[in-house]
Amino acid sequence: MVENLKEKLISQAQEVSRLRSELVRLNTAILRWAGEAAGREVGPKPVAPCTGCEHSQESAQLRDKLSQLQLEVVENKGMLSELNLEVQQKTDRLAEVELRLKDCLAEKAQEEERLSRRLRDSHETIASLRAQSPPVKYVIKTVEVESSKTKQALSESQARNQHLQEQVAMQRQVLKEMEQQLQSSHQLTAQLRAQIAMYESELERAHGQMLEEMQSLEEDKNRAIEEAFARAQVEMKAVHENLAGVRTNLLTLQPALRTLTNDYNGLKRQVRGFPLLLQEALKSVKAEIGQAIEEVNSNNQELLRKYRRELQLRKKCHNELVRLKGNIRVIARVRPVTKEDGEGPEATNAVTFDADDDSIIHLLHKGKPVSFELDKVFSPRASQQDVFQEVQALITSCIDGFNVCIFAYGQTGAGKTYTMEGTPENPGINQRALQLLFSEVQEKASDWDYTITVSAAEIYNEVLRDLLGQEPQEKLEIRLCPDGSGQLYVPGLTEFRVQSVEDINKVFEFGHTNRTTEFTNLNEHSSRSHALLIVTVRGVDCSTGLRTTGKLNLVDLAGSERVGKSGAEGSRLREAQHINKSLSALGDVIAALRSRQGHVPFRNSKLTYLLQDSLSGDSKTLMVVQVSPVEKNTSETLYSLKFAERVRSVELGPGSRRAELGSWSSQEHLEWEPACQTPQPSARAHSAPGSGTTSRPGSIRRKLQCYSAKR
C-alpha cells in the first residue's frame, strides 16, 4: 500500500510539472499574441486622426480584455501554486502516516513474537505439568493407602501442585491479555488502513479537481485567444475602412476650408470698419437721448409748476373751509356705560341721539327731554379714529403757520383723558396729532424744512408747572413778549424736539408720571390739574425762504363737577376750588367773547391767560365736551352741554397765519437749531418770539401779495 501511495505521489508530481509547462506555454502564447497585436496597432500609424472613432474604442476594449486575461492567468498561477502547496502538504502527511505505519508494524511484529514466545512457554509448561500429574495422584493415593509417614511429603506436593495451578492461572490471564492486545493491534491496523484509503480518495479527488481546473483554464485560454484574434481582425478592418473615409473627408474638406478662409477675410474687413459705424450710431443715440431728456425736464418743470399751484389752491380751500365752519367748533362725545356706574335706576342711560342729524343730542333731565345742537356728536360706538378725523383738519393748519387749540371739557370720569391721551394700544388725539404732523412733514420734505418741538405743563392750584423739567414743582410764570407783538411765552419751560413716534412715547410717559392725580368719588385716578401739551411747528420753504410758525395746544382740563359731587375734603377740597375757579374764569372769557365786550378777563386765571393765544382772533379753536350718559350724572351733563352751546356761539373772526419772507438771521438760526437728535430735556426756555418770526396780520398779507405778484 505504501508503495502504491509513493507511485501515486510520483504521478501527481509529474502531472503538476506538466501543468506548469503548459502554463508556461500558455503565457508564451499570450505574450506572443500581445506582441503581434501591438505590432498590428503600430503598423497603421497614419490613422492617428481617427483616435476618437468607435474602432479605436473597440481596440481599447480588446486591450482591456487582454489585461483581464492576463489577470486571470495570474490568478490561475496563484491557484496552481495553492494546489502545489496543498499537494505538498498531503505528501508530507502521507510520509508521516507511512512512518507511523512502519513503527506500528514493527511494534506489532515484536509484540506478536513476544506473545508467541510466551505462548510456547505456556504450552510447554502445561504439557510438562500434564505429564507430571498422574504420578502425583498415584503417590497421593498410595500415600493414603500405605502410610501416614509421608503426609509431610504429600502436603509439600500438594502445595507445589497448588503453586503450579496458580502459575497456570496466571499464564492463562497473561494469555488473555495478550489476546486482547492482539485484537487491539488488529483494530489499530484496520483504522490505519481506513485512513490510508481516505487519504487516497482525497488525493484522487484533488487530482481530478486539478485536471478539471487545468482543462477549464485551457478552454478559457483558447476561447479568449480566438475571440481576441477575431475582434482584432474586425477592428483592423474597421480601422482601414475609417482611414479610407477620413481620406475621402479630407479631400472634400479642402474646398470648404478655402470658402471659410474667404468668408473670414470678408468679416475681418467688415470688423475694421465697425468702430466708425458704432461711433455714428452712438452719436445719433446720444442726440436722441438728450432730446428726450430735455423733453422730460420741460414736462417735469411744467408738472412741478402745476403741483405748486394746486398745493396753494388746496391750502386756500382748506383754510377757507375751516374758517366757514367757525373758528370755535364744539363737538360732543358720549362715553359708554361701564361697570363703575353701578346698577339700578341711577345707572340707566339718559342720553339719546338724532338718527337724521349727527349734531343733535337729547338729554332726559328730571323726566324732561332737553336737546342741544353742536357741530358734531359722537355716540359711544365711535372710535378714537372717528374722533380724530373730525379734528385733523385743524392739526394740518398748524403746519401752514396757524395757532390751533383743542381742549377737552367735562366732569371727572367722562373720558377726557381717554380722548386726549388714549391707551398704548388705542392712542388718542395727542399721539395721533403728532403722527399726522410727522407724515405731513415727510410728504413736504422735498420743498420744506420743518422742526417740531413739544412742551408739557400743568396748572395745579393756580400754579404753572413744567412736566418735562428736572424740577416739576418749580413755579413758572407767563410773560408777554418784549417785542410788543402781544404774544405770550413761558420762561423756563422745557422743550423737546421730537422726530419719531418713539420720541413722542418717551415725552408722554415722562410727562404723565409727573402729573397730579388723586382718588375721588367719581374716579379712582382723577386728574387734579389742567394738562397742556404745546406743539410748535416751524418751517421754511427751501425754494423761496418763506418761514412759518404754528402752535398746537392740546389741553386736558380737570373735572368740571361740583365740590359736593366729588366728595373732596381738606387738600382735595382746596384743589377742587381752584379747578372750579379756573373753569369759571374760562366761562367768563367765553361770555365776554360771545357778547363782544371790549375787555376780556384772560388774566383772571392762569388757564385762560395761557390760552389767550388760542382763544383770541389769531387762532383756530375746537372744544371736545365729554358726556357721561347715566342718570345720576344728568345735572353735570346738562351743565357741560349748556357751556358747550355758549362756547359754540363765540365768533373769534378769521385766524391769521404767522409767516414771513426773507433770509434767516443769525439769532433766528440759533433759535431753530435743534439741541439734540433724541428727546433730551433742554434747559433753554421758550424764548419770546422776535420780530423775525412774527408780524402783524396786515404786514404778512401785504408781503404775501407782493410775493404772489412777483410769482
UniProtKB/TrEMBL annotation:
> Origin organism of this chain?
Panthera tigris altaica
**What PANTHER family does the entry give?**
KINESIN-LIKE PROTEIN KIFC3, KINESIN-LIKE PROTEIN KLP-3
Comp. bias (Basic residues): 699-711
Where are the annotated segments for Disordered?
Answer: 656-711
Q: What is its main location?
A: other
- UniProt keyword Coiled coil, yes or no: yes
Q: What is this entry's stated membrane topology?
A: Peripheral membrane protein
Give coiled-coil spans as residue ranges.
Answer: 80-114, 161-227, 282-313
Q: Which GO terms describe its molecular function?
A: ATP binding; microtubule binding; microtubule motor activity
Alphabetized InterPro entries for the sequence: Kinesin-like_fam, Kinesin_motor_CS, Kinesin_motor_dom, Kinesin_motor_dom_sf, P-loop_NTPase
Family assignment from sequence similarity: Belongs to the TRAFAC class myosin-kinesin ATPase superfamily. Kinesin family.
List the protein's name: Kinesin-like protein
This protein's GO CC annotations: centrosome; cytoplasmic vesicle membrane; Golgi apparatus; kinesin complex; microtubule; zonula adherens
Location comes to:
Cell junction, Adherens junction; Cytoplasm, Cytoskeleton, Microtubule organizing center, Centrosome; Cytoplasmic vesicle membrane
UniProt superkingdom:
Eukaryota
**Phosphoprotein is among the record's keywords:** yes
**Binding-site residues, ATP:** 410-417
